[in-house]
Backbone:
């Protein structure tokens, strides 16, 4: 069969996808023909079992920050194999599995010993232990190769393609490769253990201290996880090699970590990624005549690369798109605020585009693009003479931004303690990044100030944008007149608590719905509002109650 790599250099570029598809289709037909179907099924079943075991365990190892531990175990078992053959002179699978298991356990213990009894951290201890033991295994293997009858290449890359012609074992009336039977048992046992001990694994992986406080035996959970890891590595090593085990322990779980926000989703994504990697990688290896283990790892890493770029919310492309969208929104908001500032200073609602581009520090074409989008949002309209002017909606948006900016300046000065000349850049960023609910909370914490630290008046917004005369009493200023219309939830209390908290207080103040009132005084230090009723009685309203009283002004406020 002509290799797709060889075809790459002799066919036109536009035909390459067709040739690759034809090659894949041809390989599919050959691999799944009647004569080859048994071999293909055995190979894919073994690769799938290894992929699932590595995916499940890899998820917990990544969450615990121990991804390198699988790398260490899959390399150091080579030393155990060499020592076992030298000691017993036998290549029996039971002897090799037992020796590799002992080596894996010794590796884990040595890593814990080095990191627990010295200043060396666990990642460095892992690197020291596994490189040392693996190097010893390679030296012994290369020196004593004629006596051992072991192949270093087989240890690294495995023998996945020839699993079906190996030693067989009868299972339910079928003759199956013994390596497939062993790995299937490991996979089923591991699945049962994960289901049985899911909650302890979950809690101890995310918060070991919480797990201990809840009575979870964290040390036993850790030991069990290491044992399961060792058994998986040992079961997979003799048939698929170190490369495949290392790749599948890290790449599919890392893909699941990017694609999911919860552990069940991470396990699902890791499992699907591992199985697809085995399926696609095996067929590509057949097409291009390369080792199946290496190609499966390449496909798994390729899937991780796709997730790295496109994972919802965390992929590079999504991050770049989100940053671009945020930058565009900030440009819109800065522009509409600049237009309002010019309108207040000049008294004119018409603004020249060329002059505006100079102030914004951008080209006229960029400004035209921003203005076009702002027209779609209903913030500006084009004037007859070619300029632009703010709409009522644009003025409202600009006032909201200006209010947020001045409130953040006041908060940074009064609550954080920043110097007055240092607050503007920070407030310039905060006004775009934080939502209106947090701005309202800041306003409440500051006691609803009327001016910012520079002495400029802070715009105030109605409680309901569709009713420009409806305000919470805490946002009223001296001279405002209106009538009481109802109650509104405070910033940090649910609506159901209003009546219980303040019904008696409202009754004691003898405030009735519809009562006409005039704000005659405001004490910023005590955070109280003094209102005068029609009968001439003055009533002092505390801050907590003023947040809940809704007043409809006789006319919209100027600010």
Residues:
């Amino acid at each position: 069969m002509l290799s797709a790599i060889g075809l790459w250099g002799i066919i036109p570029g536009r035909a390459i996808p067709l040739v690759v598809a034809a090659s894949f289709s041809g390989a599919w037909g050959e691999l799944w023909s009647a004569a080859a179907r048994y071999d293909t099924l055995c190979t894919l079943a073994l690769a799938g079992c290894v992929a699932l075991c590595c995916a499940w365990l890899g998820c917990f190892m990544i969450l615990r920050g121990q991804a390198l531990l699988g790398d260490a175990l899959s390399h150091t078992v080579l030393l155990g194999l060499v020592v076992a053959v030298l000691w017993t002179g036998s290549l029996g699978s039971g002897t090799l599995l037992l020796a590799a298991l002992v080596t894996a356990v010794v590796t884990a213990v040595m890593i814990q010993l080095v990191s627990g009894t010295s200043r060396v951290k666990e990642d460095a201890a892992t690197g020291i232990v596994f490189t040392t033991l693996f190097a010893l295994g390679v030296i012994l293997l290369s020196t004593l190769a004629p006596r051992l009858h072991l192949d270093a290449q087989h240890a690294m890359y495995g023998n996945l393609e020839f699993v079906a012609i190996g030693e067989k074992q009868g299972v339910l009336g079928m003759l199956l490769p013994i390596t497939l039977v062993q790995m299937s048992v490991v996979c089923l046992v591991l699945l049962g253990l994960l289901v049985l001990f899911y909650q302890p694994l979950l809690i101890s992986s995310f918060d070991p201290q919480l797990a201990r406080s809840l009575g979870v035996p964290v040390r036993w959970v850790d030991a069990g996880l290491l044992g399961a890891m060792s058994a998986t590595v040992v079961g997979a090593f003799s048939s698929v090699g170190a490369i495949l085990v290392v790749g599948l322990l890290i790449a599919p779980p890392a893909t699941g970590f990017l694609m999911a926000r919860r552990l069940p989703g991470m396990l699902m994504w890791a499992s699907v990624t591992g199985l697809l990697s085995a399926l696609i990688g095996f067929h590509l290896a057949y097409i291009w005549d390369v080792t199946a283990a290496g190609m499966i790892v390449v496909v798994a890493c390729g899937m991780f690369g796709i997730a790295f770029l496109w994972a919802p919310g965390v992929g590079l492309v999504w991050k770049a798109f989100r940053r671009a969208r945020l930058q565009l929104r900030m440009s819109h908001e800065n522009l509409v605020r600049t237009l309002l500032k010019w309108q207040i200073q000049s008294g004119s609602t018409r603004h020249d585009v060329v002059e505006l581009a100079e102030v914004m520090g951008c080209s006229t074409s960029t400004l035209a693009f921003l203005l076009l989008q702002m027209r779609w949002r209903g913030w500006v309209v084009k004037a007859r003479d070619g300029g632009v002017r703010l709409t009522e909606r644009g003025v409202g948006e600009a006032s909201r931004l200006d209010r947020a900016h001045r409130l953040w300046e006041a908060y940074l000065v009064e609550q954080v303690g920043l110097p007055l000349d240092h607050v503007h850049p920070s407030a310039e960023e905060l006004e775009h990044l934080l939502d209106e609910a947090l701005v309202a909370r800041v306003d409440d914490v500051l006691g609803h100030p009327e001016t910012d630290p520079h002495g400029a008046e802070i715009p105030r917004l109605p409680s309901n944008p569709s009713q420009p005369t409806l305000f919470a009493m805490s946002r009223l200023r001296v001279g405002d007149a209106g009538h009481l219309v109802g109650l509104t939830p405070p910033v940090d209390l649910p609506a159901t608590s209003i009546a219980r908290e303040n019904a008696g207080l409202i009754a004691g103040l003898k405030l009735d719905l519809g009562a006409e009132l005039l704000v005659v005084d405001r004490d910023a230090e005590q955070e109280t509002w003094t209102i005068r009723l029609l009968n001439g009685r003055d009533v002092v309203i505390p801050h907590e109650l003023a947040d809940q009283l809704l007043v409809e002004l006789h006319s919209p406020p100027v600010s």
